[in-house]
Write a structure and sequence with these properties.
PH-domain like
C-alpha cells in the first residue's frame, strides 16, 4: 500500500517525452494513473509479492550487446530490481540478437493485443553505476555483458533523482559487510602509482555498489580532443568547453505522403570559437572489467564542426520543451572568403 504522495509522484513522472515515438503498448502504460499504475506494476511486472514500486522514469536506453540501437523505455525502480519496459519494435529490429532476448515468435489473431519486452536487472546483481558528464546519462553495470544498460536521460534532474532513489533502495538490501578498509593516504587512495593520473571519483555505497563520477581530467581529455579537430587553433594555450549537452540532430525525410523528421542522437559541444557535433559511445566506456578487447569505435567521433564566426543566425521554434534550434551558417565550404580574395586577385 504505497503512500498517496508516492502514487501522485509516480503518476506525475509517467509522461512520455513528446519528441519521441513509442508503440501502442507503451502508450497504454503512459495512460495509467494513480492506483491503476501501481496495480499494473504488481499484476504484470513485479516478480515477488512484497515488492514496492519506488520510482518511475521514461528514458532512452542503450544495451551493451546492441550499442547502436537507442530505444525508448519505461524504467521502473522497485525494492528488488530495475525493470526496463521496452518497445516491442526494438526486439523485432534486432532479431540477430536472439541469444540475448530469447524471443519466441507468436502470431496473435487479436489485433488489440500488443507485446512489450521487459528487461530485469536485479539489485543484488548490481555492481556499479557510472554517471556521465554533467549528469546527462548514467550506465548501470551488472556481472556480465547482458547486464549493462545506459539510460540517456539528457536531463541532469532526472539523473540525479533516479540516483538518489536507487541509493535509498540499495540501503534496504541486506548484504554481508565488506571487510574494513586499510587506512590510506590521499595519494594512494586516488592516484595510480603506475600512470600518476587521478582516477575517477568513486563512492562505495553501504550495499557495496560503486557510484563512479567523472573527474576534471575527463573534461581536459575532451578539450584536448576538440582542440585536435580545430584547424590551426591547436596552439591555443587554453581551450574552454562552455557547453556539453546530449541532443538530437533533426534530419528531414521527404516521404510520399508527408515530410517526416528523424532524430539522430548527437553530443553537442560548444567552445568559445566553434560548435561541434559528435557521435559518442555512451555504453562501452569506461571498459567493463570482463572486456577482453577495446570497443570497435572511439568514444568520440566528430560528425560536424563549424566556426562561431560563420554563424549567421539562430532560429528558435515556439514549442515548449524540448526546444528546437536551427543554426544557419554562411561559410562557403569552410573557407575564409577574404583570404581567398587576396590569393585570387593580388597573388600570383
Amino acid at each position: 500500500y504505497p503512500s498517496e504522495s508516492l502514487v501522485q509522484k509516480v503518476t506525475e513522472d509517467n509522461q512520455i517525452p513528446v519528441h519521441l515515438q513509442v508503440s501502442v503498448s507503451l502508450q497504454y502504460v503512459a495512460g495509467l494513473k494513480g492506483s491503476a499504475l501501481v496495480e499494473f506494476f504488481h499484476g504484470n511486472i513485479a516478480e515477488v509479492e512484497n515488492e514496492e514500486l519506488r520510482h518511475l522514469m521514461w528514458s532512452s536506453v542503450l544495451f551493451y550487446k546492441t550499442p547502436s540501437v537507442e530505444v525508448m523505455a519505461c524504467v521502473l525502480l522497485s525494492t528488488k530490481a530495475i525493470y526496463f519496459l521496452l518497445d516491442d519494435s526494438f526486439v523485432q529490429a534486432d532479431e540477430h540478437q536472439s541469444d540475448f532476448w530469447h524471443k519466441e515468435n507468436s502470431d496473435c489473431e487479436n489485433t488489440s493485443f500488443h507485446l512489450s519486452c521487459c528487461f530485469v536487472l536485479k539489485l543484488n546483481d548490481l555492481q556499479s553505476v557510472n554517471v556521465g558528464l554533467f549528469d546527462q546519462y548514467f550506465r548501470i553495470t551488472g556481472h556480465s555483458a547482458d547486464h549493462i544498460v545506459t539510460c540517456l536521460t539528457r536531463d541532469s534532474y532526472n539523473t540525479h533523482t533516479f540516483i538518489q532513489q536507487l541509493m535509498a533502495v540499495l540501503s534496504l538490501l541486506a548484504r554481508t559487510p565488506s571487510p574494513e578498509p586499510v587506512d590510506k593516504d590521499f595519494y594512494s587512495e586516488f592516484g595510480s602509482k603506475i600512470t600518476g593520473k587521478m582516477e575517477n571519483y568513486e563512492l562505495i555505497h553501504s550495499s557495496r555498489v560503486k557510484f563512479i563520477y567523472p573527474n576534471e581530467e575527463e573534461i581536459g581529455d575532451l578539450a584536448f580532443l576538440v582542440a585536435e579537430k580545430m584547424d590551426g587553433l591547436t596552439n591555443l594555450p587554453s581551450l574552454n568547453i562552455l557547453l556539453y549537452v546530449l541532443a538530437f540532430q533533426v534530419n528531414h525525410v521527404e516521404g510520399s505522403a508527408q515530410n517526416t523528421s528523424s532524430l539522430q542522437p548527437k553530443t553537442l559541444i560548444l567552445t568559445s570559437s566553434d560548435l561541434f557535433l559528435f557521435d559518442e559511445d555512451y555504453i562501452s566506456y569506461p571498459l567493463p572489467e570482463f572486456a577482453k578487447e577495446p570497443p570497435k569505435r572511439d568514444k568520440y567521433q566528430l560528425a560536424d564542426g563549424r566556426r562561431i564566426r560563420d554563424l549567421d543566425r539562430v532560429l528558435m521554434g515556439y514549442q515548449t520543451y524540448p526546444q528546437a534550434l536551427t543554426f544557419v551558417f554562411d561559410d562557403v565550404q569552410n573557407l575564409d572568403l577574404m583570404q581567398n580574395l587576396t590569393l585570387d586577385h593580388f597573388g600570383e
